[in-house]
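The passage that follows is intended for readers who have already worked through the single-chain material. We present the inputs for a multi-component assembly, then the predicted structure in tokenized form, and finally a short commentary. You are encouraged to pause after the input and sketch how you expect the pieces to fit together before reading on.
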Amino acid sequence: MAPYESENTTTAGEADEPRTRRRRAARYAVPVTVMGVAAATIGLVPALADSGDPDLPEITAAQLIEKIAQSDVERLSGTVRITTDLGLPDLGGLESGLMSGARAQGGDDGSSADPSAKLAELASGTHTLRVAADGPDRQKVSLLENAAEYSLIHDGKDVWGYDSASNEVYHGTVDASGEDREQRPPATPKDFAEEALKSVDDTTSVTVDGTAQVAGRDAYKLVVKPRQSGSTVGAISIAVDHETGMPLKFTLTPSSGGAAVVDVGFTKVSFDRPAASTFEFTPPKGAEVTEDGDLDKGREHSGKPGKAPKSEADLAKGLDGLKMLGEGWNTVAVFDDGEAGGLPTGEAGGDLEGFLGSLGDRVEGEFGTGTVFGTRLVNALITEDGKVYVGAVTKDALVKAADAGK
Amino acid sequence: MSRAEAVRGASPLWTLGLLRSELITTFRRRRTLALLGVLAAVPVLVGVAVRIETGDGTSAGGGGGGPAFLSQIINNGLFLVFTALAATLPFFLPMAVGVVAGDAVAGEANAGTLRYLLVAPAGRSRLLLTKYAAVMAFCLVATLVVAVSALVTGALLFPLGDLTTISGTRISFSEGLARALLIALVVAVSLIGVAALGLFVSTLTDSGIAAMATTVGLLITVQILDQIPQLHALHPYLFSHHWLSFADLMREPVYWDDLTKNLGLQALYAAVFGSAAWARFTAKDITA
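Having made your guess, compare it with the prediction:
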């Protein structure tokens, strides 16, 4: 009998058959319950962990901005999550191909440990960075990749870039210590916040919008909004640590709604001194070291990942005829390269025209006709007479600016 | 009931004996030994290939292609351990585990030995637990076979010494060795989800071959699903999604987020499919 009975059924008689069956079915409740509990945990724990907004003393926007300015956090380590969604067409490999092409123009040798090469990666998608700083002389930013990491280490005079995937090292030096801020890619919420607060003027409304918890710390929320309509920037929200005044999270939402264009925030942060070994770097044995005497070139190329223009060469060419139209958030930059037919429109354009045209929209106005190339943040209008209008404004505002500038 | 109670009360030693006989049966099988042999051969193959390719002094894995850590092997043999684990974890290791787990119950049923196992007064739950323990032991042994084979090959073909973590900091060789051991353990634990899945499939059928094929088929399906970007909402729940997070142990400081996610996910799979296997096995009519 033994092989035919499970340990819990004592008398599996004929009469008990339906009951046994029910009992058997009941056993499956266990895996189902386990799954249910797991699903509930996954769903509920984040909600429960969100213990509501912290209570902090009232503060005015001006005081908060002052607090940010006075913030002098020199020692920190933490993990930063950066998500950028510029709405660029997903070109995949083509994009990186263009990027490397651009680098080749810049005279670089194409080392994968070159900082400017890595910056391009931040322009789209979600990335996890680790940052550590100990005073103005020692900083480290690491871009976490699958089973690999790209580290940019600044230790005194040396700047090291280390790409563990290819085991390549980039080495540069900085003349005066302390002037490294430019070297470092704008990776932390602080970098972005400082950039945003530079543009605060009378076209901007700045308010304190309650409090929030970021990376386990209590923070004030500063909201920066353009007063004018026509900007593609909907709002910029900056979470500021209430103790140190350091920005912990930076979110830029577009006026068109939807997901944030740039979202940079600490997921973990500590203001203790990081271990000294963090900043020590000696090239591993056998690593290919690329020396780069002038980091200035790299600096020129780095730009801002959030606003990096796609064809730097073109823009540089147009810089001669640079004009600014409008004010505040609705400023539109105009490049005039003097050549008619900025975008090939004739039949000679062939396939290339078709390809470029498919990326943009044709518009007409008092200025003539042109093509608008749009991202979620920056729009550009290239007219047939060779003018380029670029701004963080909507397409309509761009056309209006072009009409006014005529 | 009273008989079962009596057995349960008197049998910790019994369970150990059952486990021991189960382990001996599993590891004496020619099939198991062949699987372990194949796993041991992978690091040797990778090591020799890297050695031959870089024999003329050029650097390996230029551009960072191939499995993780490949480019560092030539400078430090210890990296062969990480490369070998990264190369075998996606397929070879779980396939071997799937074969052993799928065979665990269905194989006995197929050979007609399951009923004799159940004649022994051990109870079905206990037999199933023993089977699962044996499969997990195989996970550990298989991983260690890969790691040790890689370490020996790496030591023979390449220099050893201090190593650079992927964060760019340096650690001593002994610490590197400790991390290698830790990584091997994490890889072994990464496999318990597949093991539980295989065991559940194994209780569903009386054909060992069918159970193995289904488990390995599911493994391949999950790996493919994990590659489809449109299904990204599903990805965090696929047992293989966080497998390569073991490489995070080579960061300095260690990045725990994905590692804990991986361990939690494996525990969840073990709980769900382990209890499903229990529900099926204890209620099953044993006809073979």
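Commentary: DSSP finds eleven helices and two strands in chain B. The two ends of chain B are 24 Å apart (CA to CA). How closely did your sketch match?
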